Amino acid sequence: MNFQTILLEQPEAGIYLLTLNRPQALNALNSAMLDELAQAAALIATEPAARVLLVTGAGDKAFVAGADIGEMRDYSTEEARAFSAKGMRVMHALEALPVPVIALVNGYALGGGCELAMSCDWILAAENAVFGQPEVNLGIPPGFGGTQRLTRLVGRAMALELLTTARQVKAEEALRIGLVNHVHAAAVLMERGLDMARTIAGKGPVAVRLAKQAAQRGQDLDIANACVLETAAFALAFATADQEEGMRAFCEKRPAKFQGK
Ligand code: DAK
User: Fold this and answer.
1) 26, 79, 168: which to mutate for ligand 1, most atoms within 8 A of CB?
2) What is the pTM assigned to this prediction?
């Protein structure tokens, strides 16, 4: 597909790499980019051979420096509502992808950029990564789910501190407060992301999808209902050839050859 503001590549079988590609504006999210992100998410959602998605920013300075302030500044209330709704749909679409989505944050992840990273399943940060929700500096609250996802990731007290002071957090602190899973030197961030993607792509594909779905859908349920969801996913796996192969391979002391069915 021919995109103008993003790149969507498949560096290895089943591994997709999505690059936010407006480096001259530090990859700020404008309306066109949100539309293309929605198209890319729809494409991956319907690709049965997809195993994992990596999301990163073009250039060495920013993942995404936020929603495009130049585009937003003259919005009417109705336009702001429409822009926020569009952004929310994109964040939900990424979050709901059937495969793991990993953000590789290589520089600034501010405002909508931090919200985009938090819509991914987890974050690997470069040492130069900077996270923050600076919207209150502009006289607005976050509009792409930041008040909700930051709170769920780092807890209400730390989230509210960051949301109301606009304090920016560097990679090491982001690791300490649970916003990111790992920190790597910027030069090896992509390679570490690909290593992780290869590991996931080598596992049972249906099992990976079921695990993601149960973990994600379950988090908004009470524990009893969430565990019912897990039981259904577990039982469903026993209808797949991969479960048979995975267990046979274990007993025969050889690596499993999964087919994704
Ligand atoms: N939007 C548009 N352009 C941006 C941008 C942004 N968010 N961030 C950077 N740029 C552009 C700069 O204008 C500059 O363009 P030129 O002047 O070269 O044409 C270029 O990128 C390079 O930026 P700088 O020259 O500023 O680079 P520095 O290294 O000096 O500074 C910086 C980097 C990241 C510290 C700085 O650029 C900065 O503070 N950027 C803004 C960060 C920010 O405030 N982000 C949050 C944006 S607000 C809602 C929907 C959504 C949202 C809210 C509500 N509803 C509708 C309810 C989301 C809001 C946000 O994300």
Assistant:
1) 26
2) 0.97
How many residues belong to the chain? 261
> Residue 18: what are its φ and ψ, rounded to 5°?
-110, 125
Report the run of H or E that residue 245 belongs to, with start and end.
Answer: helix 241-251
Tell me the two tokens of residue 25: 């504006």
Phi and psi dihedrals of 109, rounded to 5? -130, 85
Burial (CB count within 10 angstroms: exposed 0-12, middle 13-18, buried 19+), residue 258? buried
Closest of 48, 181, 169 to residue 109, by C-alpha: 169
Distance CA 246, CA 254 (A): 10
The answer, yes or no, to whether residue 1 has pLDDT greater than 90, is no
Band (180; pLDDT cuts 50, 70, 90): very high
Instruction: Identify the residue whose tokens are 């990163």.
Output: 56
Output the ligand 1 site: residues, CB below 6 A. Answer: 25-26, 28, 65-70, 80, 83-84, 87, 108, 110-112, 134-135, 138, 140, 142-144
Q: Which residues contact 220 (CB under 8 A, 6 or more apart)?
A: none
Whole-number pLDDT of residue 152: 97
DSSP string, 12-66: ETTEEEEEE--GGGTT-B-HHHHHHHHHHHHHHHT-TT--EEEEEESSSSEEE--
Is the model's pLDDT at 27 over the cut of 80? yes
In this prediction, residues 111-118 reach a mean pLDDT of: 98
Task: Please state the rounded mean pLDDT for residues 204-228.
Answer: 97
